[in-house]
Write a structure and sequence with these properties.
It contains 23 helices and 31 strands. The chain is α+β, with helices and mostly antiparallel strands. The protein has 5 domains: 160 residues, no CATH class; 40 residues, no CATH class; 68 residues, 2-Layer Sandwich (Dna Ligase, domain 1), CATH 3.30.1490; 65 residues, no CATH class; 201 residues, 3-Layer(aba) Sandwich (UDP-N-acetylmuramoyl-L-alanine:D-glutamate ligase), CATH 3.40.1190. The strands form 7 sheets. The chain has a 10-stranded mixed beta sheet with strand order 25-24-23-26-22-27-28-29-30-31, sandwiched between helices. Strand 13 and strand 14 form a beta hairpin. Helix 1 packs across helix 6 and helix 4 crosses helix 5. It is flat, with a radius of gyration of 31 Å. The termini are far apart.
């Protein structure tokens, strides 16, 4: 079995409105194979099925949506090679957390096409290759570790997908109908289009001030500012040497905490130190985590209690999570190192952001912590003894409903004092349900760009809608961030039509870019080029912060080979002549459930569009007063008048010699009232 070719469709295609990964498969000797004719292979696949369908990693994050395609029972009774490969591909994509919105097979050239919507091309390809390996192993009785395959696909997905924090925000935006675009292979994402766009980078927004980020990075400066406004923080100072650190610890009084000045993610922090020797040993551990060798190390009071993470978005606390210590329990037989290895076999533990628990590591900080208890990795703790490997480890338990109002108020004040619109506050307190001052609780850090996965998928408790809160901060209620997009199908008059639509929209007060030739054109700005292909032009249109509308010509060959370049458009203008099937399907998919098609009454596409979209979403243009039966609501019109029909609501609009009637109809279909359209045409002269 070989791949003859693969195709990545950018935006709407003949398959779907979403991007699609397609492969043409040469089945080779498996052309006539089926599960019914190969019961041993069917039994092997059935044995691997539980591991392939387990989806343990994404299940906690967003539930377990059904895998598109045939169900196993139907497959086992009659599945051929195309159906089985499709099922395996969809199952592995789901296991990786990228369940496709649709998948398809189609016979072609003695083989078949296999296609599925694609969140990320490299993940789609990896899962496809793994599906082939699984099928061939079943057929030839080869080795195949289904659980390891799933884990490998999860790792591939975590390498190439957006991180869980960014993904939670993006999915909240999609749920509100806000378009999203991943700008880079990192976590920079555009929400919305044109002049309505906003940007995020993980949980940072385009309103997150760089000064606030710098303040949050400097933990000592942050504490000073918080102390000034009455937020309880631990006393402490920066030390520039081990000896200086010991002097600071003596002045504060033991126990103390030693931590880097400008590191993050809890690295290099030693808690509960009770002697000068421990402070000296911890100094170098902390200093190595600093981004600057001269930053110094913070010595501060040790706050009693457990770790809590509060997420502030705007002017409210939207989520809170409680941490736990990483620890093992002695059994009198195994060493600490062995107990840690056993704990790390828990499938919930891993190195990825999507793993609910992190891997326990006996690193330098852990070694120092063990030594303070008279232990080492080869020590065998007695039965029942709890041995802490890391203080304030994973944040596992949602406690949003338990946060005391005064604690929430202090958290919001802290975020505002630093200047962050989205902030993660590390708080140490015995009970988050009581005021901090009453229990010597303290705000330890204020973090810019905080991780939010612990709130989206807590190990214990209820997930919180933190993505929705951040999207709500960026877009007011009811705003969808969409600009007006008009597609003009390729024809001899397409460029002139697109330019005319652009002039109408500009005259009506909408800042518009037109992509109809070698480059982009906007009123008041010299034309510019952005690279080859419709996709590059459309991305440029959507990324321009100074526009309200975009008009582009869709080229038939590009739409067939690479997709439309956008997942949506509001208006699609069809020419008088026929449109290639792949381009027609792509345009219809891009129109979705609300877009409007504009069609000349003489077009051979008219009947098919009425059958596909329905009369209410078709605008028929008749400039010659010769309406066929499918557009019989069109009334005869005198010269210089375009009659446009949407369902049973005909409108007549006077046009000038310089504006094609179909361009006028497109303006009306795009939402311009008859009066605004008439005023725009009059302004154009």
């Amino acid at each position: 079995m070989e791949w003859r070719r693969t195709t990545e469709y950018d935006g709407a295609s003949r398959w779907h409105a979403l991007p699609v990964f397609e492969v043409e498969v040469d089945p080779g000797v498996l052309a006539d194979w089926s599960l019914r004719s190969d019961r041993p292979a069917a039994a092997r696949l059935a044995g691997w099925r539980a591991a392939l369908e387990s989806r343990p990693y994404e299940l906690a994050f967003e539930g377990s949506p059904p895998v598109p395609g045939p169900d196993w029972e139907a497959l086992a009774s009659s599945g051929d090679v195309a159906a089985v490969l499709r099922w395996l591909w969809g199952t592995l994509l789901a296991a990786a957390g990228t369940t496709p919105a649709g998948s398809w097979t189609e016979r072609v050239n003695g083989g078949f096409l296999l296609a599925a919507t694609a969140e990320e091309w490299r993940v789609s390809r990896a899962c496809l290759d793994m599906a082939r390996a699984c099928l061939l192993a079943a057929v030839h009785d080869g080795p195949f570790d289904a659980a390891a395959a799933v884990r490998e696909m999860v790792d591939v997905a975590d390498t190439h997908r957006l991180g869980p924090s960014t993904r939670a925000i993006v999915r909240a935006a999609v749920a509100r109908g806000i378009p999203t675009h991943r700008v880079t292979t990192a976590s920079l994402v555009q929400l919305g289009e044109g002049g309505r766009q906003r940007r995020i980078w993980t949980a940072e927004t385009d309103a997150t001030a760089s000064i606030a980020e710098s303040i949050a990075q400097d933990k000592e400066l942050t504490k000073m500012l918080l102390r000034q406004v009455g937020v309880p923080v631990p006393l402490g100072r920066v030390a520039d040497s081990p000896a200086d650190a010991c002097r600071a610890a003596e002045a504060l009084g033991y126990p103390v905490v030693v931590k880097p000045r400008d590191a993050n993610h809890g690295r290099g922090i030693s808690f509960g130190l009770t002697s000068a020797d421990q402070v000296r040993d911890s100094f170098d551990l902390a200093a190595r985590e600093n981004s600057s060798s001269s930053a110094g190390v913070i010595i501060e009071q040790f706050a009693p209690g457990v770790a809590h993470r509060l997420l502030v978005v705007g002017d409210r606390v939207v989520a809170a999570s409680r941490g736990q210590h990483d620890m093992v329990v002695g059994d009198g037989v195994h060493t600490i190192a062995q107990l840690v290895d056993e704990a790390n076999r828990d499938p919930l533990r891993g190195e990825n952001y999507t793993d609910l628990l992190g891997v326990m590591k006996i690193d330098e900080v852990a070694l120092s912590l063990l030594a303070r208890g008279g232990l080492a990795p080869d020590s065998v703790p007695e039965p029942g003894r709890r041995v802490t490997i890391k203080v304030n480890g994973d944040l596992t338990t949602d406690e949003t409903d338990e946060v005391h109002p005064e604690v929430a108020a202090r958290a919001v004040l802290a975020a505002r004092t630093v200047g962050l619109d989205v902030a993660g506050l590390d708080v140490v307190a015995e009970d988050i349900g009581k005021p901090l001052e009453a229990q010597r609780g303290m705000v330890i850090e204020v973090n810019a760009g905080p991780g939010i996965f612990m709130h989206v998928a807590p190990l214990h408790g209820r997930p919180q809608p933190v993505g929705e809160a951040i999207v709500g901060l960026l877009f007011p209620p009811g705003a969808d961030g969409k600009m007006l997009l008009v597609a003009v199908a390729e024809s001899p008059a397409a460029s002139a039509t697109a330019a005319a639509i652009g002039r109408i929209l500009e005259a009506a007060g909408q800042r518009t870019i037109v992509a109809a030739g070698a480059g982009l054109v906007q009123a008041g700005q010299p034309g510019w080029a952005v690279g080859d292909g419709d996709g590059a032009a459309i991305r440029a249109i959507k990324s321009h912060p100074g526009i309200d509308a975009g008009v582009f010509v869709s080229h038939a060959a590009t739409a067939e080979a690479h997709g439309l370049g956008t997942t949506r458009c509001d208006v699609a203008v069809f020419p008088a002549g026929p449109v290639p099937a792949a381009q027609r399907a792509a345009l219809i998919h891009a129109l979705g459930s609300n877009g409007v098609a504009v069609v000349p009454v003489e077009s051979p596409e008219l009947a098919g569009l009425f059958a596909t979209l329905g009369a209410g979403r078709i605008v028929v243009v008749d400039a010659a007063a010769t309406a066929p039966a499918t557009a019989r609501a069109v009334r005869p019109t005198p010269a210089g008048i375009a009659c446009v029909v949407a369902g049973e609501s005909p409108r007549t609009i006077a046009v000038t010699g310089s504006v094609p009637p179909i361009a006028c109809a497109a303006g009306w279909a795009a939402g311009l009232s008859t009066d605004r359209l008439a005023a725009a045409l009059q302004a154009l002269g």
